[in-house]
Amino acid sequence: MNKRFLPIAALGVAAALGLTACSGGSGDNGDGGTNAEGQTLTVWIMEGTNPDSDAYFEEVADAFTEKTGAELDVEFVQWADAHDRFVTSIAGGTTPDVAETGTTWTAEFADAGALAPIDEYVAADDLGDDLVEGLVAAGTYDDELYGMPWYAGVRSLVYRSDIFEELGLAAPTTWDEIVAAGDKIKAAHPEMMPFAVPGDAEFGVYPWVWGAGGEVSTLEGDEWVSGMASRESQEGIGFYTGLATEHGFSSAGATTWKETDVLDNFAQGNVAMALMGSWTPAAIVEKNAELEGKFAATPIPGKDGGIAPSVLGGSHLSMFETAENKDLAWEFIKLMTTGDFAKQWGDETGYFPGQTSLLDEAIASDDPLVRPFAQQMVEGGGTPPVTPKFGAVQAKKTTNTAIQAILSGQKSVEQALTDAAAEMDEIMNG
Amino acid sequence: MSNTLQVPTAAPGASAPRAAGGAARKSLLTRSRPWLLLAPALAVLAVLLLWPLVRVLLFSLQDYGLREIVSGEPNWIGLANYGEIFTSPELYTVVLPNTVGFAVLAVAGTVALGTAVAVLMASLGGFWRTVVGSAIMIAWAMPAVTGTYVWIWIFDADRGIVNETLQALGLQDEPVNWFTNRYTFYGIVLLNVIHHGFPFVAITILAGLLGVPKEMLEAAEMDGAGPWRRFWRIIVPNLKQVFAVVIILSTIWDFKVFAQVYLMPGGAGSNREALNLGVWSYVESFGQNRYGFGSAIAVLLTLVLLGITVVYVRTMLKEEEL
């Protein structure tokens, strides 16, 4: 049975490979691009980023058909099971032509050989100089660009401006000012958490590492060397966790909070300060309309002032190797990531566009919930190590484990970070 | 299974002398007939069950990641995956103690509670039996994910009802995060899993209880046996097979428990003391795209569960005809 099954399966796979190879070739040789009558482009987009995505993609589909003659088939995928779906479709050779890929996944899929490089297209359309740097860095693997910058957000310090005003406080610009503000809030509003320190949210940790002059992990020659145990990193994380363990600004429950728990509690009015993403203000107001106009953002302070770098989070549009008509796929990517549709997407979602010229418009905004984030993104955008191996570090929750162990008192700051650095080195060089 | 096979193989033996001078072809046909009849079912089983099992076994001998999935090239590394599993210190200090300890307590708790509820239901009248039956069915029908979140809310550190009650009673000064300690963490998982698992046991055992001959129980009562004695001397021996099935199934389920741990605060890997076999294999293999390593763990888990099942079946049902 098995013996008979194998050759048939092999035949099938070979035939499928042969077919895609043929059609891929014909796509390159001409019938792609602007005249693709009768063809269909399949696209996967993550669900939930844009509250009104159906209407948005109807408009995009019309424009796309008008320009190329091809139909657009958009499928919405949940973030939670998107990674699994990509992996299964890569295994089965059923990937879409174009898909939204989270910035930390692009290098991983490129490393596996599932994505097509897009440098030539970007160069041909002269877009290279107008792309946001942090997103280009995250989409580049082995010196080739695999992810077209689409949109991004960044985490900054979000605080309750009504409480700050009531107590005569200004937005903190140094670490000492954070502690001073927290002490005042704690005294005046004991029912509130002055500063939430979640134990299961790694992107809230790295700004303190970078803000103190530390590094997460750097490539030295061929080897990744984690800087999590350095004196600077210990100082930064010691301060961050100290907000909970020494100053009592956080809560016992926050030891196991994720970012979504921070958002929920801020929306319920339990939290006065927290690191939150530029995409959260809309969600906060949606959950609790009473908070509208009662909170503001400010870039994350460095130790003695300045801006501590914060992780850019966002998405690329990536082209898969299985795309039959790559010129057509590029037409779609270009339509989405540049010009009017990119701007509209940014306006509707609260994220920043991946095009520098569009981002500049956002910086000029005087909205207190847009401008600080834009400033953080331009002046203090950081990228975690760009290697598929860092995905493994995230999956193993190396950083989260360290923070949770410190917050729950299982380990000292030094012990927890020494362990984390050793684990990071082991995974990233393995 | 063995019965169905024995009957046809006995038949050719009996008919052989009669056909001795006749065609050997006929006896070959007769002999292979049961296999021919079984062939479609076996073919389906082979495709659906055997082939995936073989694949998992083959993956477990490879360093199999995304790259291998895309290229289709095998990448043999022999028994290195198994070596890594057995030399991993976390396996012995955290993963196995958590998994085995939890499974033992959970199976004991589920079967004990389920049996108690079954005995209660057997002694109830029609109306109240329906009421209790519907109530426990709701616990059973609740999806594991939903149930887990309910328990998380109950034990939430800042606003959970348990902490608020303990503080109101003055038993506790500060809110306690029950999810950061290994034992309280698994205590909550235990509550969750027993609550979700006992209805199946109760219903199954109730079905068995209703089949116990009334005459035996009445006779025992006449002879002066109290309820406790009647339960252990008559009901339990009569329900041996039912208990065996229930214990085996519960053991398999409780060994593999995943969602109820993974969804708990800190249970997805950031609290290393709370790792069990399911979460550990997920974090170490699928989270990091190491499908070969994950397959090796799956193979070992299958072998362990097979072993447990064999031991149970042999000890519980030795005297019976199985």
UniProtKB/TrEMBL annotation, chain A:
Give one Pfam family, short name only: SBP_bac_1
Q: Which PROSITE patterns match?
A: PROKAR_LIPOPROTEIN
Q: Which InterPro entries match?
A: SBP
Could you say which residues form the signal peptide? 1-21
- Keywords linked to the UniProt accession: Signal, Transport
Signal as a keyword? yes
Instruction: Give the UniProt family note.
Output: Belongs to the bacterial solute-binding protein 1 family.
- Please identify the protein, giving its name as recorded: Sugar ABC transporter substrate-binding protein
Which species expresses this protein natively? Agromyces lapidis
UniProtKB/TrEMBL annotation, chain B:
List where in the cell it is found. Cell membrane
Native organism: Agromyces lapidis
Which SUPFAM superfamilies does the annotation name?
A: MetI-like
Keywords from UniProt, A to Z, are: Cell membrane, Membrane, Transmembrane, Transmembrane helix, Transport
Identification of the protein by name: Carbohydrate ABC transporter permease
Please report the record's description of how this protein sits within the membrane.
Answer: Multi-pass membrane protein
Which family is annotated? Belongs to the binding-protein-dependent transport system permease family.
- For this UniProt entry, which segments traverse the membrane? 35-54, 100-124, 131-154, 183-210, 231-253, 291-313
Where would I find the ABC transmembrane type-1 domain in this sequence? 96-312
Q: Does the keyword Cytoplasm apply?
A: no
Tree of life domain: Bacteria
Q: Which InterPro entries match?
A: MetI-like, MetI-like_sf, UgpAE/MalFG_permease
Is Transmembrane tagged as a keyword?
yes
What Pfam families does the entry give?
BPD_transp_1
